[in-house]
C-alpha cells in the first residue's frame, strides 16, 4: 500500500508600504522611474550617512498587526542583518529579528474545506534592497537603487497551511486587509507584494516536520499554486526513492514549470545579526496604539454584511463589490449621490468589470468619478437615453471620465420619444419588410424582433424600445 503524504506550508510575505518616502530617508518611493533617480547618500549606503525612521512606516505596521489580531510589541527595535550582495549597498539590511513590532496573530480563511485560522508568527519592518537588472546581450548586471530603502513589512505565517488552495486563500485575505488599510496597493506584478514559500512533506500522521525548502519571490497567485504542486511532487519523489530532501533556497521558473537550487539555506547566525546602533528603540505609548486601533477602517467582512443589510444587495453583489477596496469606494460614493444601490452595483459588476478584464486592468485602475456614473444612471432612469446608448456613453466615462449630460447633448444621443416621428418611421419599416410582417401574422413571434431592430437602425439607435414595440404591435 502506498504511503499518504501531507504538505506543510508556511509563507513569508513581503509587502511594500504605501509611504511617499523611503523608510530611513526622504527619497521618493514612486514605482517605474528612471534607474537611480530616487537615491541619496542614506539609501545608497554612503559612509557617514545616518538613517532616520519614517513614522508612517511604524503606523502602517501597527495597523496591519491590529487587523491581523497580533500582539503589538510596545518596545521594539531594529537589527542589522549582514550579507554581501551587489544590490545591498551598505552590505547589511536594517530589519527586526529580536523584537519585531507584531507577534502571535492570526487570520481566518475560507476554502472548500471550510473555515480555518492561519497563525501569524510575527510581522517585522525592514528596508528593501536594490534591484539587479541582468543584460544578457552585454553579459553584464546593472544595479538600480531606486527600490533600496523602500519600506517593507514581512508577514511570517506559522506552518499552518496544507494545500495550494489554503495558501491562495491566505494570500488573498492578506492582500485584502492590507489594501483596505491603505497600507499598500499589493500589486504583485510591480513587486509590492512578494511571497516566499517554505514547504515540506511528511507522512500523514507524522508528528515531526520534514525538511523544508524555500522558494523565493514568486510573482503571481497562479505561479505560487503551480510552484507548490511541483515542489510537493519533487519532494515526494525524493523520499519515495530513498533520497533526502536538502534544506535549501530554490528559485521557481514559471515558464519552464520547475525549480532549481540557488543556495543552501542560511540560518540566523550566518547573518551575524546585531542591534542596529544608529537607530533608537521604538517606544509605542498606550495612547498611540489606541489611536491606531480607533482609526481602523471597516474591513471587507463588515462591509460585505453592511451592503446586504443597509442597501439590500444580494450576497453575490456584496461579495464582488468588496473584493477590491477601490470598487467598494466607487460604489459607496456613487450610491450616496443617486441613492440607487442595485443600479450602481449592476454598472460596476457588469460594464466596469468587463472593460477592466478586456484592458487587463485592476479595479485599482478605475479612474472615473462617481458623479459621472451617477449622472449616467439618472439619464437612463429618466428615459433620456436608452440602454444601448448608455453603454456607449459609459465606455467614454470609463476612458476619459466625460460628463454624460454634455456628451449626450453634443452627440445628439437623446432617445426619441416623439410618437409622431416614431409612427412614420415604423410605418415605413412595415412597408419595406412584407415578409417579416407576414411571418409575424402567421404566429412567428420572433419576426417582431427583426422589425424592432430595423426601426432602431432607422432611428440610429435612439428610439425608446418600449414605445417601438407598442406602436409596432398596434400597427400590425
Automatic annotation (TrEMBL):
Catalytic activity: L-glutamyl-tRNA(Gln) + L-glutamine + ATP + H2O = L-glutaminyl-tRNA(Gln) + L-glutamate + ADP + phosphate + H(+); L-aspartyl-tRNA(Asn) + L-glutamine + ATP + H2O = L-asparaginyl-tRNA(Asn) + L-glutamate + ADP + phosphate + 2 H(+)
Assembly and binders: Heterotrimer of A, B and C subunits.
SMART domains in UniProt: GatB_Yqey
Ranges where the Asn/Gln amidotransferase domain occurs: 329-476
Keyword hit for Amino-acid biosynthesis: no
Family stated for the protein in its record: Belongs to the GatB/GatE family. GatB subfamily.
Function: Allows the formation of correctly charged Asn-tRNA(Asn) or Gln-tRNA(Gln) through the transamidation of misacylated Asp-tRNA(Asn) or Glu-tRNA(Gln) in organisms which lack either or both of asparaginyl-tRNA or glutaminyl-tRNA synthetases. The reaction takes place in the presence of glutamine and ATP through an activated phospho-Asp-tRNA(Asn) or phospho-Glu-tRNA(Gln).
Enzyme's top EC category: ligase
Classification via InterPro entries: Asn/Gln-tRNA_amidoTrfase_suB/E (IPR017959), Asn/Gln-tRNA_Trfase_suB/E_cat (IPR006075), Asn/Gln_amidotransferase (IPR018027), Asn/Gln_tRNA_amidoTrase-B-like (IPR003789), GatB (IPR004413), GatB_C_1 (IPR042114), GatB_Yqey_C_2 (IPR023168), Gln-tRNA_amidoTrfase_suB_CS (IPR017958)
Keywords: ATP-binding, Ligase, Nucleotide-binding, Protein biosynthesis
Pfam families: GatB_N (PF02934), GatB_Yqey (PF02637)
Natural source organism: Roseburia amylophila
Protein name per Swiss-Prot or TrEMBL: Aspartyl/glutamyl-tRNA(Asn/Gln) amidotransferase subunit B
The EC number(s) this enzyme carries: 6.3.5.-
Amino acid at each position: 500500500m502506498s504511503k499518504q503524504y501531507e504538505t506543510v506550508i508556511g509563507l513569508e510575505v513581503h509587502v511594500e508600504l504605501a509611504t511617499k518616502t523611503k523608510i530611513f530617508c526622504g527619497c521618493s518611493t514612486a514605482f517605474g522611474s528612471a534607474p537611480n533617480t530616487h537615491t541619496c547618500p542614506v539609501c545608497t549606503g554612503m559612509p557617514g550617512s545616518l538613517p532616520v525612521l519614517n513614522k508612517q512606516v511604524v503606523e502602517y505596521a501597527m495597523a496591519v498587526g491590529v487587523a491581523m489580531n497580533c500582539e503589538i510589541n510596545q518596545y521594539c527595535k531594529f537589527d542589522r542583518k549582514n550579507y554581501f550582495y551587489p544590490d545591498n549597498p551598505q552590505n547589511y539590511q536594517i530589519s527586526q529579528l529580536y523584537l519585531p513590532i507584531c507577534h502571535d496573530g492570526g487570520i481566518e480563511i475560507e476554502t472548500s474545506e471550510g473555515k480555518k485560522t492561519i497563525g501569524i508568527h510575527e510581522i517585522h519592518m525592514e528596508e528593501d534592497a536594490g534591484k539587479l537588472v541582468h543584460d544578457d546581450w552585454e553579459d553584464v548586471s546593472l544595479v538600480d537603487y531606486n527600490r533600496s530603502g523602500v519600506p517593507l513589512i514581512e508577514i511570517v505565517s506559522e506552518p499552518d497551511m496544507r494545500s495550494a488552495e489554503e495558501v491562495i486563500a491566505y494570500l488573498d485575505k492578506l492582500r485584502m486587509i492590507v489594501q483596505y488599510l491603505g497600507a499598500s496597493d499589493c500589486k504583485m506584478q510591480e513587486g509590492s507584494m512578494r511571497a516566499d514559500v517554505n514547504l515540506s512533506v511528511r507522512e500523514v500522521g507524522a508528528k515531526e516536520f520534514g525538511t523544508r525548502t524555500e522558494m523565493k519571490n514568486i510573482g503571481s497567485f497562479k505561479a505560487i499554486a503551480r510552484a507548490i504542486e511541483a515542489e510537493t511532487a519533487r519532494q515526494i519523489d525524493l523520499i519515495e526513492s530513498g533520497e533526502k530532501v536538502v534544506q535549501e533556497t530554490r528559485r521557481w521558473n514559471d515558464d519552464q514549470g520547475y525549480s532549481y537550487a540557488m543556495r543552501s539555506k542560511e540560518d540566523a547566525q550566518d547573518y551575524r545579526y546585531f542591534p542596529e546602533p544608529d537607530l533608537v528603540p521604538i517606544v509605542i505609548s498606550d495612547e498611540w496604539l489606541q489611536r491606531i486601533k480607533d482609526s481602523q477602517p471597516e474591513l471587507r467582512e463588515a462591509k460585505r454584511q453592511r451592503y446586504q443589510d443597509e442597501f439590500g444587495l444580494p450576497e453575490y453583489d456584496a461579495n464582488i463589490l468588496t473584493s477590491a477596496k477601490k470598487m467598494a469606494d466607487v460604489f459607496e460614493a456613487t450610491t450616496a449621490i443617486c441613492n440607487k444601490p442595485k443600479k450602481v452595483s449592476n454598472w460596476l459588476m457588469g460594464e466596469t468589470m468587463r472593460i477592466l478584464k478586456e484592458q487587463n486592468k485592476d479595479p485599482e485602475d478605475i479612474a472615473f468619478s462617481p458623479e459621472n456614473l451617477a449622472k449616467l444612471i439618472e439619464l437612463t432612469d429618466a428615459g433620456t437615453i436608452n440602454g444601448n446608448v448608455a453603454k456607449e456613453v459609459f465606455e467614454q466615462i470609463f476612458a476619459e471620465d466625460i460628463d454624460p449630460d454634455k456628451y449626450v447633448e453634443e452627440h445628439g444621443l437623446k432617445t426619441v420619444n416623439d410618437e409622431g416621428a416614431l409612427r412614420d418611421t415604423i410605418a415605413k419599416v412595415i412597408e419595406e419588410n412584407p415578409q417579416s410582417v407576414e411571418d409575424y401574422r402567421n404566429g412567428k413571434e420572433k419576426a417582431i424582433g427583426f422589425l424592432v431592430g430595423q426601426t432602431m437602425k432607422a432611428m440610429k439607435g435612439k428610439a425608446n424600445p418600449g414605445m417601438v414595440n407598442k406602436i409596432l404591435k398596434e400597427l400590425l
